[in-house]
Amino acid sequence: MVALNLFVYETTGRALAMGLFMAVRLASGFVAGLVVGGLLARFSAKSIMLWANVGQGSVMLVLILAPESLVTGALMAVSVVIGACGTLFMVALRSSIPEMVGEDRRAWANSLSITGRSLAMVAGFASAGVVVSLVGYTAAFLLDMATFVVCAVTVALLPIAGGKGATSADEASGTEKAGKSEKAEKSEKSGPRWRPVAFLALAAAPGLGLMVALRGVDAFGSSSHNAALPIYSTSLDASNPAVFVSAFWCVWALGNIGAQQVIQRYAQRTGRSVGALGFGYGTVVMSAAFIAAFAGFPLAVTAVIALIAGAADGLTEVAYTSHLQTLPATLRGHAFGLSATFENLGFGVGMILVAAALDRFTPLAVVGWSHGAAIVVAVVFLLRVAGLRRAERTGRVGLRKEEAVEGRPDRGDRDGAEVSRG
């Protein structure tokens, strides 16, 4: 994305074009999030992940081979395909992890995946400037295309059993439980079909809809620090603003990786995940840390703050992903797709509002109210989780032991507790 954004700006000479490129990418991801649940019900997660990588690699080749007169059109095609295929791949991967590694190893697998992504981010940010400056954009795009090829080959080797994410029988059964007959389900067109099933996924557990909404508000807050970092860095060192941005994200990634090591060991030792409470508290800590990062503290203190922000971000990612994975297979893909839609919407709207606000207010003020909104929603979510836990304990007092239902995500009994006990 570093090379692509620079290439867009250099090709068009307009910052507006770079913003349009990002807007199209986010819009494509938004639409993909709406339809991916239905795709996972019809095709295997493995095939979706495979073709998502093939599509992204192919469109990079089109960009490389495009004549100069068609470069702008090729860039828009890249924006659409990468935005849509990136969302399809991520949702398919997250929803299929329980089938790949087993229910009891979800947290470990999620943590390992996030660690790899954080390492890749560090490598990508560190190498992008060197590759572009030394060997040019074509070499950078060829390298990018090669990563999609490697990913496609890796996907082909993944041990995903069971074919489709939700078989026809399972899907019919799930929709019947939702009050829709099999006949009505079959008669629906593929377009609107995602809507009731997607929102059924959010209704499957009390508080899950609020959890997804918090994720969207969190993405809104993330747009603020992404947009404000270059401005804040320029105010610190106008001659070399890239230094602070690169250092900040590298330290952030180290904190994220460190948190994953702790989470992996915790999951292996206890067989439990950090759960919904970890997601709520992690969001509060992460948002507070990002606000503090723009408060003008000495660089050493800011480095510690970035480390804390990365660790809290890693905690929320694992907790959130693991929690959604407790949903039944018939609903899981729809929930992840709707979540991706909320995230893209929050980030896209945030980029527009934040960009306008940064012309009038300081980075600290803009990041403060953006992440402050996430903190407010996170507190509401934590109160909701606490209420669910109290209701759960009260409701079990008079139950016979054999009638007690524990840990069913479709009933929402664990919405405020650990997601998994292994």
Question: Can you offer a commentary on this structure?
Answer:
There is one protein chain. The protein contains 15 helices and no strands. The protein is an all-alpha fold. The longest helix is centred in the last third of the chain and has 34 residues, at 363-396.
Distinctive features:
422 residues, 15 helices, globular, disordered C terminus
Task: Give the gist of this structure.
With 422 residues, the protein is mostly helical.
What order do the helices and strands come in, and which of them pair?
Layout: H1 2-12, H2 15-42, H3 45-65, H4 71-101, H5 106-135, H6 137-156, H7 168-177, H8 182-187, H9 190-203, H10 208-236, H11 242-270, H12 275-293, H13 299-324, H14 329-357, H15 363-396
**Major sheet: size, sense and barrel closure?**
none
Q: Name the average pLDDT.
A: 79
Categorize the overall geometry.
Answer: globular
Distance between the termini: 38 Å
Q: What's the order of the H and E elements?
A: HHHHHHHHHHHHHHH
- Taking all Cα atoms into account, the compactness measure Rg is 22 Å
Class by helix and strand content? mainly alpha
Strand content: under 5%
Helical content class: over 70%
- β-strand number: 0
State the low-pLDDT regions, or none: 165-195, 404-422
Helix count equals 15
